[in-house]
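Sequence in, structure out. Go.
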Amino acid sequence: MCRFLLYKSNSPILLADLLTRPAHSIIMQSFNCKLRIDRRQTMNGDGFGIGWYDEPRTKGCIFTSTLPAWSNINLQRLAEKIKSGLVFAHVRATTGGTATSESNCHPWQYGNLMWMHNGNIGGFDRIKRKMQNFLREEIYLSVQGTTDSEHAFAVFLNMLEDPLGRQEFSYDELRQAMLATIEQINQWLGEAGVTETSLLNFAVTDGQTVVCTRYITDREMEGASLFYSSGSEFRNEEVSGTYRMIKANKREDVVVVASEPLTFEKSDWMVIPSNTLLVITPRLNVRLYPIVDQYWNPHRGRQKQLRQAAAGC
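Output:
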């Protein structure tokens, strides 16, 4: 599985302060991730991508490469020069036998919308044709790669009205489209009799609102890890030389979402519960919504604790 992070703030940040400099930056996670479900494989070396927006209501920019993130000198150079208030970053580990190519690297873009995914659609090959047949012609033709992730993006786009022509969407519109996408994928998986687990940690933005999910098609297991941190500033403390989420006041001026915390300060990071949707509004309000469907289990964590306690007795 992959690793991703996103940053949203009214104050642009140097990409290096997210991608390369923190103790457990996304570059570190590309070769030494800590929280993958499959602990046997800690490498995410099948390419990477970064996306950023210069201004609200303008089309973002994306840079991708099939080289491992840790060895790409151009990424290092760009990270030291580019600042942005909305950043997507992704390091890839292939799933489902898909090719290592730039067209398969996250994030993807359609108009003002940008999308990335950590996880996999179990049994994707058994529902791929249904996904393609569901798409409007212009969206079908926009798919350049072969991944389940990009096809999921296409399904999401199909849930929106005129996704190419609009500059912005309400957060509720993006939230509802995300929920509809997950519901539709689950319907196709059910019709195909797929029993393999899917991990659907999706993230999408129009340059102003961000919507992301931590989701698994299982009532007992936990989804792929996802955390968020919010405060007044994410920066390097001069005395210690470490990065922290500074909370100088009660306002949320910065929100970071990441597959794994970028720092080792546990108090800075909150776990996003499995099967939950997170919204970051244009005003930087963070809202969490449970995804209540056949896989929703409000006692998921509690049941695990009880089993562990019983095993220790």
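Check: The CA atoms of residues 123 and 194 lie 6 Å apart. The first strand starts at residue 3 and ends at 14.
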